[in-house]
Design goal:
Layout lengths: L6 E5 L4 H12 L3 E5 L3 H13 L3 E5 L6 H15 L4 E4 L14 H28 L5 E5 L12 H21 L5 E7 L27 H12 L10 E4 L3 H4 L5
């Protein structure tokens, strides 16, 4: 088991991509800190992992709050004694054009989708450095961060910013033997902020099928493992070839 004895924090772990990442890492021996503001969803994922023979605990956290993030990281460190991996997955979208997007909505999307990964990485990196842990961090961006859209104005800005944030984090943490990379999905599983997967949702890619959360989980597993030890500051596209076709994402 490649992650036996290691601890992974996964945000937005109560469903969709975060749930599959958590369960896959647990299958490979990691203890999972299931981070989700929704107690019902978070506890269910943690309980599912435990029922399958793994180790997990739900931690409630409003990642729009710096104070809550600092407290959550401290709680995970206290509970498990270490943090080896972080997956910054949680995000929200606005689905609005600039004329219909309130400043408060813009600020909240950026707080959760861009600022939270900055704060979580900063706080987790402090723990990793103090423990002399060769940590691994994966940020979940989106193909929406690479294309302009006629809606989701704040979301596209946040996901685009997350790509360059990943590079800056990778440069600053490399000397501490902490690797930071990103994954870039396109329309994987249910839409951002929704629980249900809509099989009729239009998907244009080379794979000829919609992406599923396990596709992204497999990519995250690779970037968190020693098999990717020479990959730093990269953005791995998990989009079925969508960006190769450059169809846009409107």
């Amino acid at each position: 088991m490649r992650f036996k004895g290691q601890v992974a924090m996964v945000t937005g772990a109560g469903r969709n991509i975060g749930e599959d990442v958590s369960k896959l890492l647990a299958q490979h021996g990691a203890t999972i800190a299931v981070i989700d503001i929704d107690q019902t969803r978070g506890e269910k994922v943690a309980n599912d992992i435990v029922a399958a023979g793994g180790q997990a605990k739900w931690f409630g956290c409003d990642i729009a709050s710096e104070e809550a993030i600092i407290g959550c990281v401290a709680a995970v460190q206290k509970a498990f004694g270490r943090i080896d991996m972080l997956v910054n997955n949680a995000a929200i979208s606005d689905n609005k054009d600039m004329f219909n997007l309130a400043t408060s909505e813009w600020n909240r999307v950026l707080a959760i989708t861009l600022t939270a990964p900055f704060l979580l990485t900063r706080e987790v990196a402090k723990v990793m450095i103090a423990n002399k842990t060769a940590g691994r961090i994966v940020n979940v961006s989106s193909t929406s961060g690479y294309f302009g859209r006629n809606r989701a104005t704040a979301y596209t800005a946040a996901k685009g910013g997350l790509v360059n944030l990943t590079k800056s984090q990778a440069i600053q943490l490399a000397e501490h033997k902490i690797r930071v990379n990103a994954v870039v999905p396109n329309k994987i599983g249910s839409p951002v902020g929704k629980d249900e997967f809509d099989p009729s949702r239009p998907v244009v890619n080379l794979a000829g099928r919609p992406g599923v959360p396990r596709d992204l989980a497999n990519a995250a597993l690779f970037l968190l493992s020693e098999e990717s030890s020479f990959i730093i500051g990269a953005a791995l596209f998990v989009d079925g070839g969508c960006t190769t076709m450059m169809p846009g994402n409107s």
